[in-house]
Amino acid sequence: MSRPGPTTRLDSVEAIREHLDALAQRDPRLERVIAMAGEVAPRMTPPGFAGMAKVICGQQLSVASARAIWARFEAVEGALDPHSFLELDDAVLRATGFSAGKIRTVRAIAEAVRARKLDFDEIERLSADEAVARLTEHKGIGPWTAEIYLMFCAGHPDVFPAGDLALQKAVAHGLGLDARPGISHLIEIAKPWSPHRAAAALLFWRYFAVLRDREGLVL
Q1: Are 178 and 216 in contact (CB under 8 A)?
Q2: What keyword terms does UniProt attach to this protein (predicted)?
Q3: CA–CA separation, 133 vs 131, rounded Å?
Q4: Are residues 202 and 10 in contact, defined by beta-carbon separation less than 8 angstroms?
Q5: How many distinct helices (H) and strands (E) make up the chain?
Q6: pLDDT digits (tens, 9 = 90+) for 13-32
Q7: Are residues 128 and 196 in the same domain?
Q8: Are 53 and 137 in a shared domain?
Q9: pLDDT tens, position by position, 99-155
Q10: What letter would DSSP give residue 42?
């Protein structure tokens, strides 16, 4: 996989458009998906401990629920700094809506940062495979969480979270597949889209939203 650089970060509409143009040339099937999706905007979150905490917050939650919980969490004094986070009481964190499991995961991340076993600046300099491997060494961080962090916090251009259910449904519909692809199948489908897989993921999420919201289609 290619390594992210200052000209490849998916942190602007222009950067995403360049990647989508390249995708359309690689796979003409995507031209219709791109046309229907319309403008695909970046969805960036600041990197580091706070960014990872926000990704963990959103695990297995609707967008609306995650947004509400995160608003309460980030309002807690010290919650966004790994060192001060470790001083917070679990009861304060649970009152924001964070589950006990997610609190344990964020505490483990904070401990790793404090012990210098996790350096988010270093993570951004790694290839996607290396970064995912490094992040998933930490308990509570699975491939989906690592890949979402790389996409939305690091702006990595070549990550595709194949375990995401919405992506599986959107790709099945957009490519006219007979059935929703599983993780391994979707990984294979996305391979030819490298090094633009993150743009493809953003595209299909947008496509999924258009189908759901504008046409009332439930996939």
Answers
A1: no
A2: DNA damage, DNA repair, Glycosidase, Hydrolase
A3: 5
A4: yes
A5: 13, 0
A6: 999 999 999 999 999 999 99
A7: no
A8: yes
A9: 999 999 999 999 999 999 999 999 988 988 899 999 999 988 999 999 999 999 998
A10: -
Q: Where are the beta strands (DSSP E) in 55-164?
A: none
Range of the domain at 180: 13-43+159-213
Which tokens go with 145?
């969480």
Tokens of 133: 């491997």
120 and 140 housed in the same domain: yes
Are 54 and 147 within one domain? yes
CA 5 to chain centre: 18
Q: Report the predicted TM-score, pTM, of the whole model to 2 decimal places.
A: 0.86
Amino acid of residue 112: A
Indicate if 163 and 179 belong to the same structural domain: yes
Query: Vertex 47, ends 41 and 52: CA angle to 5°?
Result: 100
